[in-house]
Request: fold
Amino acid sequence: MIGGYLYREIGRNNLIIFGINKLQERKEKCSFEKLVNECFHLFPEAFCFSYYAEWPDARKLDRPLRELRERNFIDKDSQNFFYLTRSGRRIADDVGKKFSQRQLLI
Reply:
């Protein structure tokens, strides 16, 4: 989990891209279910239900994933696994750098 204060100023779409990247770094296939789990564990405050903070809210990924595909930051393969495009990888790298820089400053 990354501290809430570190990711509050980063948009949900970029957090999703970062989550996909983390799965890809571990050589895991990125299904919707795995992505929900990854994003919730990394960023629980951004991906939980409003009244049940201990549960992930998959609805918070549904529309952003469509938008990310339309903007060509992510795509799906024939088995419905998500992966980052070149543009998406650049965003994931930028988000990772922000986390690293912020952690060094704190």
